[in-house]
Amino acid sequence: xxxxxxxxxxxxxxxxxxxxxxxxxxxxxxxxxxxxxxxxxxxxxxxxxxxxxxxxxxxxxxxxxxxxxxxxxxxxxxxxxxxxxxxxxxxxxxxxxxxxxxxxxxxxxxxxxxxxxxxxxxxxxxxxxxxxxxxxxxxxxxxxxxxxxxxxxxxxxxxxxxxxxxxxxxxxxxxxxxxxxxxxxxxxxxxxxxxxxxxxxxxxxxxxxxxxxxxxxxxxxxxxxxxxxxxxxxxxxxxxxxxxxxxxxxxxxxxxxxxxxxxxxxxxxxxxxxxxxxxxxxxxxxxxxxxxxxxxxxxxxxxxxxxxxxxxxxxxxxxxxxxxxxxxxxxxxxxxxxxxxxxxxxxxxxxxxxxxxxxxxxxxxxxxxxxxxxxxxxxxxxxxxxxxxxxxxxxxxxxxxxxxxxxxxxxxxxxxxxxxxxxxxxxxxxxxxxxxxxxxxxxxxxxxxxxxxxxxxxxxxxxxxxxxxxxxxxxxxxxxxxxxxxxxxxxxxxxxxxxxxxxxxxxxxxxxxxxxxxxxxxxxxxxxxxxxxxxxxxxxxxxxxxxxxxxxxxxxxxxxxxxxxxxxxxxxxxxxxxxxxxxxxxxxxxxxxxxxxxxxxxxxxxxxxxxxxxxxxxxxxxxxxxxxxxxxxxxxxxxxxxxxxxx
Length: 647
Hints:
By secondary structure, the protein is mostly beta strands.
């Protein structure tokens, strides 16, 4: 050790006195003050013989030996070498008989050295050079203390500042005796502290099946030892040494481990490199060994972590499902959780969060799974059917138990009670455009859930088929098939009655009866009527079912007397025909020989029994009428009547 100290002293003395040194050329015709140094080296060249270059007519040029053109030379000029390399500096004389002369020059690359300044307890700093490009390194603490020179194989130093604060440390390289001290310095800040603080882990997160990420708060220029304990929080091994000159938040990702098989506890130790001791410890935070398994109608979560005690006092656990935290939080004594709020075939993600004081967290690996179930889905109980007005299409809608996640519905259609598959769909509605009203068609539905479980068939749903007729007196009878398809049955049927223009005339609540007699004979304005039946369920959440539209047309019935007495007594003096819903009318009257006695196109006019002003004899006469009704239909009507002479 004493020998090394003497060498360092000699080096420093040499550096202080090196300005007096001179190096002679091969033939001693000139000398230089430097022959070695870093790029950017300046060499003063002095002529050693008389007369010197530039005097008494002696002309000289200097050749730098690095490819640059030779330049005129005068004793005392400076030769600059901007790049690294080995060169031969040469002086060329113009005087006859005077030999040229030269000297070798060695120039090394000039770069600031890499080093790390560390904080220590007691206002000390430790400086470590992390390279070996130079033979020696010179330390300057910028506090008026002397520079320190250390050989490359021992390029570290400890310095004691008088007070805490931020200081600048400079280090430059030096290639030893006979070398110019012109290498550039590197200057870095260092935090001088009376007491080194502890690091603070803020989060531990399992990133994937082979790595864990640890975030921790740090102080600049402190050297840390990153410690790991496997499946315990007491026995640690050093993973690596960490240093950052300026960062206040550091992240360390540990690869090639097995966080799904083990949990890992982490601690960050603050190192005092001056004393080679640990100055402080962070809290211990552990990763979570977490698993999630899909079971019948439940997802089972389980985990393991170091027990809550000492330097790692857990506060609670929190389960995060599909990026949403479930409440309440779980106690630290709990190591599993069963989620029953799931739907078969649905994908879920889970992550467990362990909470420590001061908002410190440990996050598990995110687990994804799909819920499973072997439960047989509930059969569909409520189907509604809406028949289009023409009765050649029906739209089915149904309600399915929301506890099951259906992926495919199968519709079955009956033909006289024999059910066969009609179609499949993933919607809760379907339109059958092959339906025919009045064909005794019914439907059943079953479905498969996301776990491939098949429900039973639904009860049959039979659309409302409406039929009717018009009696001779124009009384209208309508009947319909009772609706089936609702678990709780029909509450009531409503009849909507429209005229031929589609204007709603009345709405009739028919209770649960499936027939209705419309005896409204007083309406002589409307001849065409449209009827639609609406079925309403006892379950008010179910949509209504609707029948086909039924059109019924009343007859344009004609009425006439069997005889009349044309005697001008004001009673039954003319023969006329009256009718309902008549838009056009033409009538002719004939005697028994087929002679036409009378004709009119006015239904309100009648025959007075005369022909060409002569009263016709008592006899049987015949009328023939052509009419068109409000519905645009044409009819021929005829009949006979008796002309009576009444005194």
